[in-house]
Design a protein that fits this description.
The structure holds 2 protein chains of 2 kinds. Chain A has 3 helices and no strands. Chain A has helices at 5-25, 29-53, 60-90. Chain A is elongated, with a radius of gyration of 17 Å. Chain B is mainly alpha-helical. Chain B is built from 7 helices and no strands. Chain B has helices spanning 2-23, 27-47, 51-75, 78-81, 89-109, 124-132, 138-159. In chain B, helix 1 packs antiparallel against helix 2 and helix 2 (27-47) runs antiparallel to helix 3 (51-75). Classes of the chains: A mainly alpha, B mainly alpha. Chains A and B meet through helix 1, helix 2 and helix 3 of A and helix 1, helix 2, helix 3, helix 5 and helix 6 of B.
Chain lengths: 103, 162
């Protein structure tokens, strides 16, 4: 059984679903950020798989993946800075208790 | 044959590590499992013959982002409290399973137009041509440089003691 595009896309869907579950169902902001990183990794796998199987000579999906990695690094940096800033003020990063802007 | 075996091993490791990230109570161990998940994603990139991306994944995600996350765990007192679920367990699980079913169904039913050309190897020079060459992605590269500068300034401003 040779590897096809579907194998990688299903692996990517499963990882994305796990990340989605973690991002929606956890209290700790750090765990939510980690789940978002898993989702970004899953999307990278899908991008590289499309690039490998649909347009193998063009590498466009790999270029997109480089930008995904850049944006993920920026997002993690600012996200963790915000988390630590909130922790300094409120002594907690439980997102169910950070409800100042909740209607 | 070797690629298939490598793919299945890496897929199982990646999914197990991701499940461990969302299910372990100890946040520090969850961060270590996240590193394992990133490493197996880098292995999947190698299976897909994206060698440069695998190296970048190891350098940036495993080397930088994971260390940043562990540092944030150390700076906040999260390890004592642990990773607790919120009150939305049932709807979240239901919608995630629904999403997964729809995604897998769509992947299986779509007639992909798979090309049978061999992949480009090695990819580094080709990627550089794509990024910086004529008609390439030079504008997004410049924009991502501005984004990184804004990120650095933003992080410094957020973390500065008043």
């Amino acid at each position: 059984m040779t590897l096809g595009l579907e194998h990688f896309l299903i692996l990517s869907s499963v990882l994305f679903a796990i990340g989605l579950y973690g991002a929606l169902s956890k209290r700790s902001a750090v765990i939510i950020l980690m789940s978002i990183e898993i989702m970004l990794g899953a999307v990278s796998i899908a991008m590289v798989a499309f690039s490998r199987y649909i347009v193998p000579a063009m590498l466009t999906g790999q270029v997109f993946t480089i930008f995904i990695i850049v944006v993920a690094a920026a997002e993690a940096t600012v996200g963790l800075a915000i988390i630590i800033a909130i922790y300094r003020r409120r002594e907690t990063i439980d997102i169910t208790k950070i409800d100042l802007m909740k209607w | 044959m070797g690629l298939e075996i490598a793919f299945w091993i890496l897929a199982v490791v990646a999914i197990t590590a991701a499940l461990a990230v969302v299910s372990l109570r100890n946040i520090f161990r969850a961060a270590l499992c996240l590193i394992l998940c990133f490493l197996s994603i880098a292995g999947i990139f190698v299976v897909l013959s994206a060698d440069f991306l695998a190296a970048v994944q190891v350098l940036i995600n495993v080397g930088a982002i994971a260390i940043l996350i562990i540092l944030a765990i150390m700076l906040t007192r999260e390890v004592e409290r642990g990773s607790l679920p919120n009150k939305l367990q049932f709807p979240v699980i239901a919608s995630t399973v629904l999403f997964l079913c729809i995604a897998v169904f769509a992947v299986i039913r779509t007639p992909w137009q798979v090309s049978d050309l061999p992949p480009v190897e090695p990819t580094t020079a080709e990627l550089a041509n794509k990024l910086f060459g004529e008609g390439g992605f030079i504008l997004p590269v410049e924009i991502s440089a501005v984004l990184l500068l804004a990120t650095i300034i933003g992080a410094i401003v957020l973390m500065r003691e008043k």
